[in-house]
Specification:
Largest sheet: none
Number of helices: 16
Radius of gyration: 26 Å
Number of strands: 0
Helix content: over 70%
Shape: elongated
Oligomer: single chain
Structural class: mainly alpha
Order of helices and strands: HHHHHHHHHHHHHHHH
Number of domains: 2
């Protein structure tokens, strides 16, 4: 009972964090709409009615508009004090609106952007998402074959999609769910399947880290220019002797803690339920690693792995033309979005809600896309992926009994 209560608390906690991040981003979207009201069509804007209610709001809006026009005409004369005064005016104007009003304004902006999106590219993007899920299923089968089982690809696909659907409800629940589904439909020991899933996740982690390194190497100039834009030169002198010495010291401390603390930690938790679970997981990992060593088609496994990540790349790169502000982004921008967005999806939040949106928004800012437009594309990508998982997950639940092997 105690563990169930803790699980519910954990579920609510992470879900609240995800939605909290998302609402904060949408609120900021609404705040930007308030600040830029003078650029919008007053008659069609949903903010117009709010401005007409309050004389002080109208006065602040007029001052902001006048100040923006002056700075546009005299960019070289705009001092730091004048810019700070403008920022103060904008913050005062935003403070006149409630959080709920700002959220509604932000959602209105996103909804308007979504209505203008080119859904041909979104559907094409989702086709490659679907293809990646199917390739994952047949790659999983390669790990199962050495154990003497030959599961059908359709059942493995159903199990993968049901697992993704479970992850939308409870993070990391998908791995257990898809093993249970395939175990029941193909009469395979669930313990053996868990080992293969652990190996599969390890391969995905190695792939993500490799892509991260490649992206960092090829996009180092973009990353450094971003830090230069958000701070002065003294703040971005990362590779100084002092900073390197601090980094080296931190690494040595962490290494010492790891070396001398692991044995003490294992001794401390031995005999506990957690230690038993960890031991069982390690045993499953060994069985999964053994299945990789026994693979007859190692090259095919590598090909499937590369294909999965290539489909992931196309999934996001082909979504860029669906939204006008991101239409001209390069392939490197797609690679960076894939890597940083993946870290958002692996966060311990149901379906990456909030975390994915924030990560993709910040990534696209590196390429000159405004935070508002970046958030809209994040909504496009996340919503499309989530709907695909829900639809295919429900379809898989409906059809998996039809393909279940009889005893």
């Amino acid at each position: 009972m105690k563990s169930q209560i803790l699980a519910v608390i954990k579920y609510i906690f992470f879900l609240s964090i995800g939605f909290g991040i998302l609402l904060f981003l949408v609120k900021n979207q609404g705040a930007d709409q308030v600040k830029k009201f003078y650029e919008l069509d007053a008659e069609s804007s949903s903010i117009a009615s709010e401005y007409s209610k309050d004389k002080q709001i109208q006065y602040l809006a007029l001052k902001i508009k006048t100040e923006h026009q002056w700075m546009y005409q005299n960019p070289s004369a705009a001092s730091a004090q004048r810019v700070e005064a403008l920022n103060t005016l904008e913050r005062e104007l935003v403070s006149k609106f409630k959080w709920s009003e700002l959220i509604l304004l932000g959602l209105s902006k996103i909804s308007s952007d979504l209505s203008k999106a080119n859904y041909f590219w979104i559907f094409l993007s989702m086709f490659f998402a679907l293809l990646s899920h199917y390739i994952r299923a047949i790659r999983w089968n390669l790990l199962i074959h050495p154990m003497g089982y030959k599961p059908r690809s359709i059942n493995s696909f159903f199990a993968v999609m049901i697992g993704y659907l479970a992850n939308l409800v409870i993070p990391r629940m998908g791995e257990v769910s898809r093993c249970a589904i395939l175990s029941k439909s193909e009469k395979i020991s669930a313990d053996k399947l868990i080992g293969t899933v652990i190996v599969e996740r390890a391969v995905d982690l190695i792939s993500l880290l490799s892509l991260t390194l490649i992206t960092f190497v090829f996009q180092l100039d973009i990353i450094l220019s971003f830090f230069t834009a958000v701070g002065d030169e003294k703040q971005v002198e990362i590779f100084t002797i002092k900073n390197l010495a601090i980094l080296l010291g931190v690494v040595l401390i962490l290494f010492s803690i790891f070396k001398f603390g692991v044995r003490f930690f294992l001794k401390l938790i031995s005999g506990s339920k957690f230690f038993f679970k960890m031991t069982r997981m390690i045993a499953g990992l060994r069985a999964g690693l053994k299945s990789i060593s026994q693979l007859k088609s190692k090259r095919l496994f590598i090909f499937y792995t590369l294909s999965i990540w290539f489909c992931y790349f196309l999934m996001i790169y082909l979504a860029f033309p669906s939204y006008a502000p991101t239409n001209d982004l390069s392939m490197f921008a797609g690679l960076s979005s894939l890597v940083i967005g993946s870290f958002g999806m692996v966060a311990p939040v149901q379906g990456g809600i909030g975390a994915y949106h924030w990560c993709l928004q910040k990534c696209l800012e590196l390429y000159g896309i405004s935070s508002n437009d970046g958030l809209t594309l994040a909504f496009i990508m996340h919503t499309a992926q989530t709907l695909l998982v829900i639809i295919l997950g429900v379809v898989s639940i409906m059809f998996v009994p039809m393909f279940t092997k009889k005893k």
